[in-house]
Amino acid sequence: MEIQEKLPVVVNEYIESVIKKMRYKKKVRAEVREELCGHFADALKGCADENKEQTAKELIEGFGDARILAILIRRGKKRNRPMWKKTIIGCVKGIGILFVLFFVYLLWFISGTPEISVDYLEVLNNMGRPDVSDADNAWIDYQKAADLYTEENKEKIREIRNEIEIRADIKEQIEKLTEEQRATFYKWLNDNKPAWEEFVKGDEKPYAYREYGFGGAPEREERWMLEIMMPHLAPMKNICKIGAWSALIDAEEGRFEEGLSKCISIVKAGRHLKGSVILIEQLVGIAMESIGYKVMMEIASENDLSLAMLEKLNGQLVEIYEDGYPNVDMEGERLFFLDSVQQMYTKGGPGGGHVVPSRFQDVVSEFSLSTEENGWFVKIVSSAPVGTVMASRNEILKKGNEIHDHLKDMANYSPYQRKMGSIRRVNDIVDELSFRYTLIMVFFPAVEKVIDHHYRSKANYEATLTVIALLRYEKEKGNLPVSLEALVEAGYLKSVPTDPYSDGELVYKKTDDGFTLYSVGDNFTDDDGEYGTKKNGDVRQWGENGDAVFWPVR
Q1: Could you tell me if 457 and 286 are in contact, meaning their C-beta atoms sit under 8 angstroms apart?
Q2: Which residues contact 442 (CB under 8 A, 6 or more apart)?
Q3: What is the DSSP letter of 513?
Q4: Do 247 and 299 contact (CB within 8 A), yes or no?
Q5: DSSP-assigned beta bridge partners for residue 511
Q6: Each residue of 389-407: pLDDT tens digit?
Q7: Is residue 298 part of a domain?
Q8: Could you tell me which of 102, 109, 99, 104 has the C-alpha nearest to residue 392?
Q9: CA–CA distance from 125 to each of 2, 129, 203, 209, 228 (Å)?
Q10: Residue 238: inside a domain, yes or no?
Q11: Cis omega before residue 357 (within 30°)?
């Protein structure tokens, strides 16, 4: 500073102009100021006072333009930085650039909107639409039945339904109810006779087709297939139980044919629902069929049915699936998945499109697809920053279709064949996916179990036919056959029933008081006909701690 004060004014002005134009760190500017002052001081040393001003101007002219000098000095200082400092500064700059680019990308990402290009609801409706008249459509009758179904007191009816089991001792169970409960139960059965009558009308119809829609769903500009309403399922299940309890009452009062006829109506309705392209309806159909088979077995177990009744029942059951037992249909579920992708992804661009985080969160929240286990995870992946690394549209479609194809292939193999053939479980495939495929993790919960339920239902059907055949054989021959093959040879069965949980047939054994017929069940182990049980000790037909016993009924 002392040196600068001794320099001519023109020099000081030049130095300050250079320092100002450097636009650099304060410390470095101070160092440069000191260096320039020293340089001018040395150059003017020994110069007479009257010549200093002129000499200074000549020196300044030699240094050149202040702005250019400032730029050169700044560059020189940067080049002379230590390597570690250059590295740090370069990294900071790089990070800054990346941050800006990511921010721009994020704005573009968030602004993306889905493009709904396919009406998957129309595709779904066209998949199951038969080319026949409405007069042959059982669904018209089922819809009337659902509309006629009534519950005067839902809470009381629900409480009674939970107390009465589908067992042959139906009247004994009813007697254990309070007088008020008995009156409510019988009134409920009586009030729903019109619903049952409409329900039965669908029996002989060749198909049941329902056009799906969004009736009752909240109004919105764009509709998701997940919004498809199925208000008919609850009434259908309840009407099915009304038929089951009425059939058991008929049997206890000696009206066996009426009771068995109700069972056939239940099984036929189940068959119709199983023809649906939507998985949940197929599951309800399987459950309804199981109730029908169970009531048949209860009636046959507690009563001495005539040969004519057994033959008629056999003929009705054979006719239901005379073209073979249908496989589970996964194609409807594929459409739900494809529609969900187009609802949550943009279309076009890198990878065919990217997820729209807000839409993903909307769908998960709207349809309660998150659970206690995955809820926190869904919230994280629904955030915009995390959403940027989610699987692209092409990736999610490819993986989803691969899993659906795998499920379709799995449906051709029984639980035993899948186990022994080391066919990979879908849950294992999904568990191995990274969080980038969260959409698939959310949309494929326990789908594989539907295939198991299908094979159990098939086993129930074949076991029911086999029990009827054994009872017919005993009535006509006076004794039981030595094997199930003997039933086939004698013309009572078309083929020996297979066990979906073993590599053989259902296990048949003659006993002191009759016979037993069972599947080895979920544990793939023959427990010698021991019933599987729940934790409370009640019998559970398809449990992992015993066999699935069809006869004797317990």
Answers
A1: yes
A2: 364, 369, 370, 374, 378
A3: T
A4: yes
A5: 514
A6: 778 899 999 999 999 999 8
A7: yes
A8: 109
A9: 94, 6, 22, 9, 11
A10: yes
A11: no
Tokens representing residue 223 in the block: 């509709």
In which element (H, E) is residue 242 found? helix 233-252
Short-list 287, 277, 284, 240, CA closest to 262: 240
Please give the structure tokens belonging to residue 542. 């398809």
DSSP classification of residue 58: H
- pLDDT value of position 222: 64
Q: Are 486 and 434 contained in the same domain? A: no
Q: Which two tokens stand for residue 452?
A: 């198991």
At 390, list the tokens. 């989610």
Q: Is 179 exposed, middle or buried (0-12, 13-18, 19+ CB in 10 A)?
A: exposed
Residue among 344, 327, 322 nearest 390 (CA): 344
Given phi > 0 = left and psi -120 to 50 = alpha, else beta, which region is 400? alpha
Number of domains in the chain: 4
- The predicted structure's pLDDT at residue 220: 56
Distance CA(546)–CA(543), nearest Å, equals: 6
CB 244 within 8 A of CB 291: yes
- How far apart are the two ends of the chain, measured CA to CA in Å? 108
> What DSSP state is assigned to residue 326?
P
Q: Write down the residue that tokens 């279709």 correspond to.
A: 401
Query: CB of 206 within 8 A of CB of 136?
Result: yes
Q: Tokens 């333009």 correspond to what residue?
A: 65
Q: Are residues 442 and 479 in the same domain?
A: no
List, for residues 24-82, the tens digit of each pLDDT value: 677 777 777 777 777 777 777 777 767 777 776 777 777 677 777 667 666 766 666 56
Same domain, 544 and 485: yes
Q: Cα 530 vs. chain centroid, distance in angstroms?
A: 35
Distance, CA of 516 to CA of 467 (rounded, Å): 9
